[in-house]
Each structure stands twice: as C-alpha cells, then as structure tokens.
Write a structure and sequence with these properties.
single chain; alpha/beta; 2,3-Dihydroxybiphenyl 1,2-Dioxygenase, domain 1; four-stranded mixed beta sheet
C-alpha cells in the first residue's frame, strides 16, 4: 500500500497552492471537471498528491502541534536549508522541534495554520528505544 493523496481545507485555495508550489516546488496538476468548488491539485512526487479545497469559514484544528496533528515530510539534504529559507520568504512560521532527534528536522506553520514537519531525508535513521 502506498500513499495516494492528502486533502486539506483552506480559505484560499489559490494562495495555498502558490505557497506550496513556491516552497516545495510541487507541480500543479489538471483537475477533473466535476469539482464545483475552488480547488487545486498538486503533485508532491510522482504518484502522490495534495488536494487543496477552498472551504468557507475554515479554521485549523487547535491540535496542530509537534505532539498533536501534523504532516511529516522527508526532504533531500541538498535543498534542506534552501527550503527553510523559501518557507520563511513565503510567510511560514518556522518552529524548532521540542524533542531531540539524531537527524536534522524542523517544523513550520503554513499560512492556513497547518503544522508540517520537514525531516532531512539523507540524515534520517529509524529511532529505536532501548527497552
């Protein structure tokens, strides 16, 4: 089983799409003609998408936190620092992690209030507990 897509709600689908295109450089996809709300679909990597839906009066969960709900993404080491700067340049709030890990990572809050974790893909290793 593999990941197909993630759907997120937003008050402004076009602005959210631009944010993720400008920061992660995700590619905009053609959408089916049977969606009757403002929306956009982006390709994160081949075969994996994010669907962005404009929902009136959308509010993010108050549980968007490191120890709460968040999306975690691997990102290549050679673009890790540049991504962090693109996020800042596009209005994201960078949040340092609470829990230490043996690999570089950071969190950011996107303009919708969603919490996203970015993990250095090349330095990542599975953390094992010593029990």
């Amino acid at each position: 089983m593999t990941f197909a897509h993630l759907t997120i709600a937003t008050r402004d689908a076009a602005a959210t799409s631009r944010f993720y295109q400008n920061t992660f450089q995700w590619r905009q996809l053609h959408m089916p003609g049977n969606i009757e709300i403002d929306a956009d679909w982006l390709e994160m990597v081949p075969g994996q998408q994010i669907h962005i839906l404009q929902i009136e009066n959308f509010e993010p969960s108050p549980f968007e936190e490191e120890f709460g709900r968040h999306l975690a993404l691997f990102h290549p080491a050679d673009d890790f620092d540049a991504l962090r700067q693109r996020l800042v340049d596009n209005g994201a709030e960078i949040i340092p992690p609470i829990r230490e890990t043996p690999f570089p990572r950071f969190f950011f809050r996107d303009p919708n209030g969603y919490m996203v974790e970015v993990i250095n893909q090349d330095a990542y290793r599975v953390e094992n507990s010593e029990k």
